[in-house]
Amino acid sequence: MSQRIIITRDHVSGILTKDAAPAARCQSGDTVVFETRDCYDDAVVSEERPLGDKENAIENPATGPLYVEGAEPEDVLKVEILNIRLRDWGVMRSSTVCGVFHEDYTERIARIFPILKRNPKDDRPAGAVGDSGAAGDFEAAGNSGAAGDSEVAGNSGAVGPYIQFDDKLTIALDPMIGVIGTAPAGAGITTDTPDSHGGNMDCHKIVAGSTLYLPVNVPGALLSMGDLHALMGDGEVLICGLETGGQVTVRVSVVKGQQAAVLPTPFLSCRGRVMTIQSAATLDEAGDMAAKAMKDFVKAAAGKDNFEAGMLMSLLSDMAVCQVVDPLKTVRVEFPLHVLETYGYRLP
To answer: Which residues contact residue 93 at a Cβ distance below 8 angstroms, ignoring those fewer than 6 apart?
Structure first.
């Protein structure tokens, strides 16, 4: 029988490395809760102090690592994201050195947003503001696309957390995980950087109800995660999303053999689509890598030749930028899962 394990926000690091001592151990199939800090190490708590109140704050602290018994190199770690629970506020901050717009700012500016919860009994149209105005813990859960009393499903605004951006605009939230990865086989990689191990991919499709497949490079995999965003658009162009802390509940399982070999990690299943995620020095390079990884996967999963797989890719795949602000840039390529299932493929 699987057990439930909690890794508290005391166990954080700014690097994913094979040398890290495990914060917890689990069996394949166990459910684990990761309590996370925000990307500023919970240091920015006032708009008047945008540089934060903590000396030596960790950039993008990741909670972990989790040692998964039985996970060995060449396996794949399946991470089912069951639930994301947010704290009741988020923060955004400009930068004078990074991000697409950094030259537009001569000083750092911070904005703190209370995360509000729409009353599920409120039958007003999406975009209307709820009456309570009280912030609390809010969850994103499940993969059905239907929202419950404390859930968010997409950006419909029908039920779930939202922010009041200004006196005219409310924005529904779609919580996601910015940093999630396993330990690399070689030198450690800082948590501000995405790579083949995962890391700071900032893919806004890594939401509750999705399943992420990551490489196992070292015994136990050593899974860590953090950098929750209550909402983030593709590109993360300012340099941040709506940064927040919270709790992530996942189920971890070890995938072995041919089922593992066919998956081009990092690999994501979300809302009826599968996605290859690749990071490189340029967007061109990352895009080429993600497209080629998906084409190879489609060939293997659907049993197609090079030309047929290329046609399916050109007809049905979508390429999108995840982020342009990290040391490596990240691109994903999406493909409809039902097409692969038509040919008999099933995700492990």
So the answer is: 40, 44, 50, 108, 109, 110, 111, 239, 240, 243
> Going by C-beta distance under 8 Å and a sequence separation of 6 or more, which residues neighbour residue 288?
none
Q: Containing H/E element for 293? A: helix 283-302
H or E element: which one contains 269? strand 267-270
Treating both helix axes as pointing N-terminal to C-terminal, what angle do 306-316 and 283-302 enclose, rounded to 10 degrees? Answer: 120
Cα 270 to the center of its chain, rounded Å: 11
Residue with tokens 């190490």: 41
Beta carbons of 298 and 307 less than 8 angstroms apart: no
At 131, the pLDDT band (50, 70, 90 cuts) reads very low
Residue type, 281: A
Q: What are phi and psi of 220, to 5 degrees?
A: 85, -10
If residue 195 lies in a helix (H) or strand (E), which one and from where to where? strand 194-195
pTM for the whole structure: 0.90
Determine the Cα–Cα distance for residues 238 and 324; give it in Å rounded to an integer.
10
| Cα Rg of the chain, angstroms | 20
- Torsions phi, psi for 115 (to 5 deg): -95, 115
Instruction: Give residue 98's pLDDT.
Output: 84
Distance, CA of 254 to chain centre: 19
Can you tell me whether residue 226 is helix, strand or coil?
A: strand
* C-alpha to C-alpha distance for 252 and 212, rounded to whole angstroms: 10
Per DSSP, 234 falls in state T
The pLDDT-based confidence of 96 (bands split at 50, 70, 90) is confident
Angular region, 47: left φ>0, alpha ψ -120 to 50, beta rest: alpha
CA distance 120 to 150: 8
As a whole number of angstroms, the distance between CA 319 and CA 311 comes to 15
Beta bridge partners, 66, equal 24, 223
Q: Is 310 left (phi over 0), alpha (psi -120 to 50) or beta?
A: alpha
